[in-house]
Description:
The complex is a heterodimer of chains A (435) and B (256).
Chain A: E1 3-5, H1 9-21, H2 27-43, E2 65-68, E3 87-92, E4 95-96, E5 111-114, H3 115-121, H4 123-129, H5 140-148, E6 152-157, E7 167-174, E8 178-180, E9 183-188, E10 193-203, E11 206-208, E12 211-216, E13 221-229, E14 235-244, E15 249-256, E16 261-270, E17 276-285, E18 290-299, E19 305-314, E20 319-328, E21 336-345, E22 351-360, E23 366-374, H6 378-385, H7 391-407, H8 413-431
Parallel strand pairs in A: 2-8, 3-7, 6-9, 7-10, 8-11, 9-12, 10-13, 11-14, 12-14, 13-15, 14-16, 15-17, 16-18, 17-19, 18-20, 19-21, 20-22, 21-23
Antiparallel strand pairs in A: 1-2, 3-4, 5-6
Chain B: E1 2-11, E2 14-24, E3 29-33, H1 40-48, E4 54-62, E5 65-66, H2 72-77, E6 80-83, E7 90-94, H3 95-109, H4 117-130, H5 135-139, E8 141-142, H6 148-162, E9 166-170, H7 178-191, E10 197-202, H8 207-210, E11 215-220, E12 223-228, H9 231-239, H10 248-255
Parallel strand pairs in B: 3-10, 3-11, 6-9, 9-10
Antiparallel strand pairs in B: 1-2, 1-4, 4-5, 7-8, 11-12
Amino acid sequence: MAATAFADAxxxxxxxxxxxxxxxxxxxxxxxxxxxxxxxxxxxxxxSRQETWRFTDVAALGQMAFQRAGDAPxxxxxxxxxxxxxxxxxxxxxxxxxxxxxxQHLPDEALVASLGQALLTHPERxxxxxxxxxxLADNPFAARNSAFWEDGAFVYLPRGVVLxxxxxxxxxxxxxxxxSYPRTLIVLEEAAQSALVVDYRGQGRYLNCPMTEISLxxxxxxxxxxxxxxxxxxxxxxxxxxxxxxNSRFTGHLLSAGGLLTRTDIYxxxxxxxxxxxxxxxxLVKDRQLGDQHLxxxxxxxxxxxxxxxxxVLEDKGRIxxxxxxRVQQHAQKTDANQQNRNLLLSRQALAHSNPRLExxxxxxxxxxxxxxxxxxxxxxxxxxxxxxxxAEAQSMLVYAFANEIVEHIKLAPLRERLEQLLSERLxxxxxxxx
Amino acid sequence: MLEIxxxxxxxxxxxxxxxxxxxxxxxxxxxxxxxxxxxxxTLANVIAGREGYEVTAGEVLFLGKNLLELAPEERARAxxxxxxxxxxxxxGVNNLYFLKAAANAIRKSRGEPELDAMEFWETVHQRxxxxxxxxxxxxxxxxxxxxxxxxxxxxxxxxxVLEPRFAVLDETDSGLDIDALKVxxxxxxxxxxxxxxxxxxxxxxxxxxxxxPDRVHVLINGRIVRSGGKELALELEEQGYAxxxxxxxxxxxxxx
Lengths: 435, 256
């Protein structure tokens, strides 16, 4: 199988033709892939001279040759399974793993399947929704995924259908110098409801380029969770497009804890009146990890409401980049938008770049943003110690409390408990280090 | 119990305490009064071990131990308690969880087993009544969104649960209305006993009507200029501190 050199356009083409010839897909889909390939050629590899890639240097990717990942056996105990009843689809290196997946009883009209299966049974549904949303047009990794995705998850809930049990998607990557392109397509029609957990995990020095598209019809409600715990040597460059119609409600939780270099680019369009979009994000970095979150939430219609609370905990030489933009279009009056980014430095070598931005074209809106970068509060530390609590434990309590503000928003108890466990395992020993 | 000898301390190179001598025995309540900027809170912070204060001379002995060599948590474990003038809000740390961690840290240092949840809950319930604290305050993050009075009550409540040998109350009366002042004072009085000592720091005589001290000391420009019985507080109330201040200009600067 051909290696994918990032810098070499001719090689994209060879690889693409090779890949496309074996796909046997509807013409519409192949067309989308070709368009994405063209975008990819135009965009090339981002350079740190570009404003949005200024602090996240991916030039090293140009020197690497990633093979398309092969099949790899994965033991079930390596998967971040959730307690309690739920639907589960597992993908290994971007390919569906039916043996690890398990669907409970679904409402008759609901469609929950791998994209590959859905293309066989309901191709028109997939083609109608895939790659149709606005956003990330200038992101080469999104384009890569659109050109090269193999499989992923498809969720279609028609009008009024409520998925009672949470749906858990696990994308496991495995291999050395391999790349995978998981794709997730979520379509909730009017008043449909669901809770979704997407887990990224893996083992090895791989490139993970996932792309998620979420479309919410009028009054639809989605509780979304993205948990990134990739291998410490892995690169994770993901994208997410979201579009919300009238009075729909989206709550997104993003936890980024793994990977060597990870970045998620999010574009959300509040396309209908009264749409509500809340994001809670937590990025944990240590050693030489870099965690980058870029968000653009665009209010296109009046009475929209958006919240972004992104927190970061930085240890060692970890680095965090946060770039959030609230864009309010001219007619989006009565928009209520707030964005907060808070970073806690646990080491003097750590570095946080915070870039909160507002772009407001309407005149009757309530928009605010704020950003902080700081060390643990010495007054709070002293207060705890003055009550007999040791320095290390006092530090841990404060770090945990800072991070848990994000996790405690999660309504799904089994996931919240899992993440609380992750926080205490990761942050307790960390805080014992000298600050 | 607490022995302070010729204590000098400075902040950012500026000397605040100019040779304090003070001896407090178990069972005694001493009041330390003085104008703003006289060094009252500096003394409290030096005793509790807050960073940023440099002790340039003198010593502080607590139950025979050299207190100044100990980390703040070691002082607390040895039985020292500071009721803060400005209790800190700690978002995300549950009040009850915090208090249990503190109680267990102190017990552990004494080689005692940790309290089980039931035992701890019983102690907490008893002590809550002492300061008329609402149960909902236990479930909230430490001091977060508490009113001034609630914060001060929470300090006395913590003291009641942790049962220190010696407590420093740093302007616990500031910002309290008369009802809250009574509640807080009742709490303190209930904890008075032959084994326990108190240093009550205050600007006003009012608190000392409720917590009647054995001794009263007047602190001016980092020095105890006069000591006496409880009647000294009344005298100060009438005459003010101006009488003692030879350098009013300096007192004003320290105030600013």
